[in-house]
């Protein structure tokens, strides 16, 4: 047994040495990347939280820039606004709140001294403003006084309200706009709006203003964060990650607990190592007895029965097969990721991804993590009649592939390039590129190199650049709008840029689609002031800048009139009477003044016709509503049920019901149930009140309230009165 023991000791020493070495390697392979991944995750989380909050802090600055660009602001500051201009200025403030890229609870603009505040959805005095923004009088007066004492200070940050589940923070700014007296702007955020709570699942995130803690969120309370800051974060047990802000005076600190040493994975690796060492010692004992046992074990581990041949060749073949399968799976996974990425980009361009979800979903696609600027290019393929049918379909597909390959080589230096098929005729190319002129030349050369032999007409529209992928949808919409403008701008270039469209736009009528939609909606819904104002602005804008395009504008207004008539059940004689031919001859106008008068007359006649038709429709709907209530009042019906029955919105049904009946739905059905209950009690005074309530669709408590309100007595008193009347009749 000496040789056996000696051989076993040698094999055991080899097994222990290699097992420990492999254990150390596995621990190192896990621990080093794990530490690196943990640090990267901390950095990514801190940056994401900082960027999210930074976008909120920049919003008041952007609002100030927009206010400074308006003539109404200076007039407001100098108290020279007319009533009309004041209304426009209020609308302007409300539009600013809707245009800002980030969500906030509220926006307010005031001079403070005049006790008048313009908010994002209403106006009011200082007390009302304080109640909306949850500011105490002392807090607001202190902020204004601090501004007055420190005119160079432009911003203050403070907590407005700590009550409730969501804290409220307010950013106050004083904007001078070159005036002797400032204008104050207030922007408020809930905690969920100021901080990215979806990302902040661990740790704490703190906001400092002028090196003073002003807000924090996460696992640590603000007092705890302040104590750590006063003592120095370096002396704490938390990992600190500082990021700067693009807004002067602000900085961010992200605190999180350090990575645990004994993680479940590390414990599992050590346990597996111990198990492996035990198994290896056992195997060495078997190797000593039967040298072939390890080879046999390897052959069995291949999962295939092996009876003859070269064992090592079989093992090598199995390893190659596994390697090939892994490579195939890797390629399939990469193809799936590419498909998911293209789907996300398609949804991003078409506006199907909510703004607050864009940054979070971008984290799932690391390859899209590139710095701007980015630009969108719309490529359109038009048939020329040279090919038709399936051959045209195949030709278009081949041309797309060739052009995409050529663009890949042309823009190989771009850190990001993605091509998305919007439909069979249109592709969108997202590029990270900042040389606009060079981009246009490369696109033009690529199209010219493909187009002559393709039988297709290819054109490209370059959208306006944007800094981040979160705003690429805006660039896409502008590119689409530019492409739509090409239909009447007379431009036939292969590559069109925004500057080219602006130049061509000077020779086209200024009649945006949105303005036409506003005009049509206002006429249909009887909003006279809106459509008259819109028409006046349209005539004035084209008269000043495009005086030679009167016939074209008249033609487009004529089309608008006919479009409104075609979209309804009205005919031209019904809308305009016997003189409808004269009313529709807008194209015969010789001056903008004549066009204005005729258009006013035509749209006014249409408005009156629509109102008359709407009155008939409303009368029919009112009859249906009353009939529904009279048939179903015994059940628990609500305004929602009535709206579902009519297939209309709840708000519209509520307004229509009140206008037609003279009272709201709740009051009417209550009074109707009261009358029916009176009739039931008169017919059967001995009937229990609970049964009466059940028959009219309510309970005894509601029945009591109905009788108290409409009869001034209890239902039991009315029942007794009916019994006395019945006995008196006998």
UniProtKB/TrEMBL annotation:
It comes from the Bacteria. SMART domains: HTH_ARAC. One of its GO terms (molecular function) is sequence-specific DNA binding. SUPFAM superfamilies: Homeodomain-like (SSF46689). The keyword Transmembrane applies. Residues 623-721 form the HTH araC/xylS-type domain. The chain crosses the membrane at residues 7-32, 266-287. Keywords: DNA-binding, Membrane, Transcription, Transcription regulation, Transmembrane, Transmembrane helix. This is Helix-turn-helix domain-containing protein. Gene3D superfamilies: Homeodomain-like. The keyword Amino-acid biosynthesis does not apply. Pfam families: HTH_18.
């Amino acid at each position: 047994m000496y040789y056996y023991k000696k051989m076993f000791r040698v094999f055991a020493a080899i097994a222990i040495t290699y097992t420990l070495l492999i254990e150390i390697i596995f621990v190192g392979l896990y621990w080093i990347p794990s530490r690196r991944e943990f640090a990267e995750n901390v950095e990514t989380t801190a940056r994401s939280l900082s960027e999210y909050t930074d976008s909120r802090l920049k919003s008041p600055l952007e609002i100030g820039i927009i206010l400074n660009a308006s003539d109404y602001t200076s007039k407001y500051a100098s108290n020279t606004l007319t009533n009309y201009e004041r209304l426009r200025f209020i609308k302007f403030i409300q539009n600013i709140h809707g245009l800002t890229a980030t969500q906030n609870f509220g926006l307010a603009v005031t001079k403070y001294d005049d006790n008048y505040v313009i908010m994002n959805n209403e106006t009011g005095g200082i007390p009302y403003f304080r109640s909306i923004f949850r500011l105490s009088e002392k807090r607001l007066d202190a902020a204004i006084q601090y501004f007055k004492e420190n005119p160079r200070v432009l911003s203050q940050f403070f907590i407005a309200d700590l009550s409730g589940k969501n804290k409220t923070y307010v950013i106050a700014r004083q904007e001078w706009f070159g005036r002797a007296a400032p204008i104050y702007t207030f922007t408020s955020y809930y905690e969920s709006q100021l901080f990215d709570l979806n990302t902040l699942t661990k740790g704490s995130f703190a906001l400092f203003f002028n090196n003073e803690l002003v807000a924090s969120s996460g696992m640590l309370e603000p007092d705890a964060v302040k104590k750590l800051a006063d003592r120095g974060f370096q002396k704490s047990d938390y990992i600190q990650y500082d990021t700067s802000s693009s807004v002067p005076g602000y900085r961010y600190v992200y605190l999180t607990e350090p990575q645990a040493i004994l993680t479940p994975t590390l414990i599992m690796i050590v346990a597996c190592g111990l198990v492996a060492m035990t198994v290896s010692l056992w195997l060495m004992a078997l190797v000593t007895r039967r040298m072939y046992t390890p080879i046999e074990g390897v052959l069995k581990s291949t999962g295939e029965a092996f009876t003859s041949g070269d064992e090592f060749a079989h093992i090598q073949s199995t390893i190659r097969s596994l390697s090939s399968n892994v490579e195939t799976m890797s390629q399939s996974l990469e193809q799936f990721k590419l498909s998911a990425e293209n789907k996300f980009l398609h949804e991003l361009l078409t506006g199907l991804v909510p703004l607050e979800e864009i940054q979070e979903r971008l984290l799932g696609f690391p390859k899209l993590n590139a710095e701007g600027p980015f630009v969108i290019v719309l490529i359109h393929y038009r048939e020329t009649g040279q090919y038709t049918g399936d051959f045209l379909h195949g030709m278009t597909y081949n041309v797309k592939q060739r052009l995409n390959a050529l663009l890949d080589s042309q823009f190989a230096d771009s850190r990001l390039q993605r091509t998305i098929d919007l439909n069979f005729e249109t592709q969108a190319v997202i590029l990270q590129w900042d040389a606009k002129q060079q981009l246009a030349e490369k696109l033009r050369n690529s199209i010219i190199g493909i187009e002559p032999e393709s039988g297709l007409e290819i054109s490209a529209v370059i959208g306006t650049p944007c800094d981040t992928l979160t705003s690429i949808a805006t660039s896409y919409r502008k590119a689409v709008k530019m492409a739509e403008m090409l239909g009447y701008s007379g431009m036939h270039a292969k590559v069109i840029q925004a500057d080219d469209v602006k130049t061509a736009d000077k020779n086209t009528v200024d009649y945006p689609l949105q303005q036409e939609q506003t005009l049509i909606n206002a006429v249909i819904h009887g909003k006279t002031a809106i459509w008259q104002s819109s028409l006046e602005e349209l005539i004035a804008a084209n008269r000043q800048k495009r005086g030679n395009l009167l016939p074209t504008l008249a033609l487009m207004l004529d089309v608008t009139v006919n479009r409104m008539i075609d979209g309804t059940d009205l005919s031209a004689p019904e809308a305009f009477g016997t003189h409808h031919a004269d009313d529709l001859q807008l194209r015969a106008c010789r001056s903008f003044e004549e066009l204005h008068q005729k258009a006013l007359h035509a749209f006014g006649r249409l408005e009156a016709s629509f109102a008359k038709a709407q009155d008939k429709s409303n009368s029919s709907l009112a009859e249906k509503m009353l009939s529904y209530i009279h048939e179903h009042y015994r059940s628990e019906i609500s305004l929602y049920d009535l709206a579902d029955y009519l297939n209309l919105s709840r708000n519209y049904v509520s307004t229509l019901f009140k206008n037609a009946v003279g009272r709201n739905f709740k009051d009417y059905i209550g009074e109707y149930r009261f009358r029916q209950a009176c009739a039931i009690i008169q017919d059967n005074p001995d009937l229990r009140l609970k049964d009466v309530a059940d028959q009219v669709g309510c309970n005894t408590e509601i029945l009591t309230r109905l009788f108290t309100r409409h009869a001034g007595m209890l239902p039991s008193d009315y029942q007794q009165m009916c019994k006395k009347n019945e006995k008196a009749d006998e």
